[in-house]
């Protein structure tokens, strides 16, 4: 058995969001969600087993990882060791090209890369569904980054076996997603805590769960039709509904900032002026704009002009998580 493996994974952005858990321990969501995997901001992670080590070591971008991240990685490795029947501690070297913890899906790419690399390093032979379930235990959204292009994550029946992501078949749509980084600082409230608070206290939460099921059904039809306008409209309303339910939490969770609102205004204006462009937002102030690839440079220029100094990146559909240098040992 090779004791070392490297994997790469990309972030994904949900077009129908995951917001709220049915099971905090197993990370089973309340709702199904659907995402697009990006071709930018990959995470590359190497797991090297070291049975002589007395603890796991976690390195992020060449320096010791923050304690909370190191603990999370170590807990994840405990799951892998449980499945593998042991295998000892590991040295985990992870390189993230996206700002960590800023609502840019770094946990999705990070935990997907870790799941794929750790499964191999500990000798587990898992198919993609099993890898998706494993990645889910690290971070819910990571279950979707196992797959490229468009993936749907099933809430399932509440069991560990029933909740996994899989590709959305038959989608030919190839949109661009323009990512406007309004603020790349680490967010004040983690998405994990924000979800918990929303489920426990928001009077709007049940309504969002119901509307989300309708959004998912309509999204699948719109994707199958290749209808970018419908996909964008559903994605935008689903994201704003998610933010509405968290704004109603007690105390409120507010990721939307003045800078985000200025860009949401600008996207609405773009549409009025005839460019099909639709916004989505996650657990942070950054705004992502879905559009036709032919319009992406123009949309990026408009967003840059609206918020001078911000970083704007253009993404397209990207690949699923995979091993690299499979022969490394
Ligand atoms: C999503 N987000 O569907 C949603 C939309 C943010 C907003 O999944 O607690 O890091 O590790 O399962 O996956 C971010 O939450 O949370 C997220 P955990 P995760 O992409």
Key terms for this structure?
about 325 residues, alpha+beta, 6-stranded mixed β-sheet, 4-stranded antiparallel β-sheet, 16 strands, binds ligand 2P0, nucleotide-binding, lipid biosynthesis, EC 4.1.1.33, Mvd1_C
Description of the molecule:
It is a single chain. The chain has 329 residues and is of the alpha+beta class. Helices cover 39% and strands 22% of the residues. The chain has helices at residues 67-84, 106-121, 128-138, 142-145, 191-201, 205-225, 228-247, 258-272, 296-306, and strands spanning 4-9, 12-16, 21-23, 28-29, 33-37, 43-49, 57-60, 63-64, 90-96, 150-153, 165-167, 176-181, 277-281, 287-291, 311-315, 322-324. The protein has a six-stranded mixed sheet with strand order 8-7-9-6-1-16. Strands 2-5-10-11 form a four-stranded antiparallel sheet. Strands 13-14-12-15 form a four-stranded antiparallel sheet. Strand 13 (277-281) and strand 14 (287-291) form a beta hairpin. Helix 1 (67-84) runs parallel beside helix 2 (106-121) and helix 8 (258-272) packs across helix 9 (296-306). The protein starts with a strand and ends in a 5-residue tail after the last strand. The structure holds ligand 2P0.
* Residue fraction in strands: 15-25%
Biggest sheet statistics: 6 strands, mixed
* Separation, N- and C-terminal Cα atoms: 9 Å
Average pLDDT over all residues = 95
């Amino acid at each position: 058995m090779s004791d070392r493996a490297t994997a790469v994974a990309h972030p994904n952005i949900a077009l129908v969001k995951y917001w709220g858990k049915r099971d905090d321990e197993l990370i089973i969501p309340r709702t199904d969600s659907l995402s697009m995997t990006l071709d930018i901001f990959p995470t590359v992670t190497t797991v090297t087993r070291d049975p002589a080590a007395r603890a796991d070591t976690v390195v992020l971008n060449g320096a010791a990882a923050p304690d909370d991240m190191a603990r999370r990685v170590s807990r994840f490795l405990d799951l892998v060791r449980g499945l593998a029947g042991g295998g000892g501690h590991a040295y985990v070297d992870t390189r993230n090209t996206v700002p960590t913890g800023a609502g840019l899906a770094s946990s999705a790419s990070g935990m997907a890369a870790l799941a794929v690399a750790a499964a191999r390093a500990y000798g587990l032979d898992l198919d993609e569904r099993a890898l998706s379930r494993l990645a889910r235990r690290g971070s819910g959204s990571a279950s979707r980054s196992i797959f490229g292009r468009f993936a749907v994550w099933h809430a399932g029946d509440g069991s560990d076996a029933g909740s996994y992501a899989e590709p959305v078949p038959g989608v030919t749509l190839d949109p661009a997603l323009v990512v406007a980084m309004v603020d790349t600082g680490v967010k004040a409230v983690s998405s994990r805590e924000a979800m918990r608070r929303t489920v426990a206290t928001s009077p709007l939460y049940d309504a969002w769960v119901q509307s989300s099921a309708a959004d998912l059904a309509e999204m699948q039809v719109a994707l199958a039709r290749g209808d970018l306008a419908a996909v964008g409209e559903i994605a935008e309303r689903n994201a704003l509904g998610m933010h509405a339910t968290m704004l109603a939490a007690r105390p409120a969770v507010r990721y939307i900032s003045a800078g985000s609102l200025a860009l949401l205004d600008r996207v609405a204006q773009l549409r009025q002026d005839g460019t099909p462009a639709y916004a989505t937002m996650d657990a942070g102030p950054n705004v992502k704009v879905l559009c036709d690839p032919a319009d992406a440079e123009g949309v990026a220029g408009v967003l840059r002009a609206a918020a001078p100094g911000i970083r704007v990146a253009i993404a397209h559909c990207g690949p699923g998580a995979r091993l690299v240098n499979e022969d490394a040992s």
